[in-house]
Amino acid sequence: MTVLNTDIEKTEIPPYSSSSERIINKESEFFSKANNRIDICVNSAQPSLLIRAEKIKKSIFDAKSRDTKTRYITEITSSNLPFCKELMKITGELRILEGVKANFMVSEKEYLIAPLGLFHEEKLGQQG
To answer: CATH: 3.30.870.10, 3.40.225.10, 2.40.50.140, 3.40.50.10070. Which one for 17-116?
Structure first.
C-alpha cells in the first residue's frame, strides 16, 4: 500500500498569465525552498528557457551549492541540444523521454505546475 504525503504544498501558475517575470520568480522561489532534491519534467522548449533566464539559472546553481540533487527529464531535439548539454553540465543528471508534454517540478516540500505555452522567448531576454 502506498501512502501519499498530503502535507506537500502545491504551487500552480494560473493559465493565461502574460507575465514571464512572475513565472521566473515562482520557479526561482521553488528552487530556493528545496533542500534535498528537485525533480523536473519539462517539454522540449523549456531547456533553452531555463538556461537563458539568468535568474532561474542562478537558482539552479544556488540549489546545487546547497547539495540539492536536481534531475531533469525532457525530450532532446536538434534545437534544444546545446541547452540540454548546458543543463547536463550544471546538474549532472538529464534523462531523455520522447514526447514529453508536461512542465512540472517536484521537491521534498512542494510541487509546481506550469501550463504549457506561458513563456514568451522575446520577453525572456529582458529577465535577469
So the answer is: 3.30.870.10
